[in-house]
User: Fold ABC transporter ATP-binding protein from Fictibacillus nanhaiensis.
Amino acid sequence: MDIFTIGELRKTFSNGEVKEEVLKGVNLTLKKGEITALVGSSGSGKSTLLTIAAGLQPASDGKILFDGHNLTSMTSEEMRSIRAKKFGFVFQFAHLVPFLTVEEQLDLMLDVSEVKMPKENRQQEIHYLLERVGLSHRKQAYPASLSGGEKQRVAIARAIIHKPQVLFADEPTASLDSKRSKEIMSLLRDLTKTLNITTLMVTHDEEMLSYVDHVVKMSDGLVV
Ligand SMILES: Nc1ncnc2c1ncn2[C@@H]1O[C@H](COP(=O)(O)OP(=O)(O)OP(=O)(O)O)[C@@H](O)[C@H]1O
Assistant:
């Protein structure tokens, strides 16, 4: 089932007098329960496309339809609410809060996403998800004592604790070695399938493409 449709998306950046069109009419459809990887040379527009799709920056033109909403015509407040409640984010580095334990990182995310749930259920949800990502034994740990792969597992758990419909991942394995990268991709695939999430990721690593359902190549601001 299509959940995300991007149509004729354009983005122009202006630096003084100079205008650069970095997205030149991109079309892309994402389906539930599938991972799509954006690949292409540096500067081809992958991160710009991902951040616009995620509502982190505005498009110059075009449409983004998500679950019946046109994201490009929303107010910034409506967009903020969709981002917080329906989207999840994972980046190259985990960006965990240094003074919060693993379980507190997830608890904070439930607050940010305005998930209303009794305290015992919150604890259960957090425990269940930490088990899914193989970290229930490190619930009380602070980020400084976690390995790179463990930090990224916490970042993934934090990105989906509020049950988002779409997960955006910008180079989620770029800071990890090959073995850890494969483990993280296997986890992302497993969670995408079992929780029926729609995942859009950017990667430079061809080894990771065997874990995804679709590979979309970008070149000079277009899908090719
Ligand atoms: N805020 C901005 N202002 C001006 N130009 C920008 C801005 N953000 C991106 N660009 C330009 O847009 C083009 C596409 O950048 P983008 O980061 O989307 O590429 P990418 O394919 O993700 O590259 P990489 O693989 O190196 O991360 C580049 O030429 C970049 O310099």
The longest helix spans residues 178-194. Residues 13, 22, 40, 42-48 surround adenosine-5'-triphosphate (CB under 6 Å). The chain has one domain: 2-223. The CA atoms of residues 123 and 217 lie 41 Å apart.
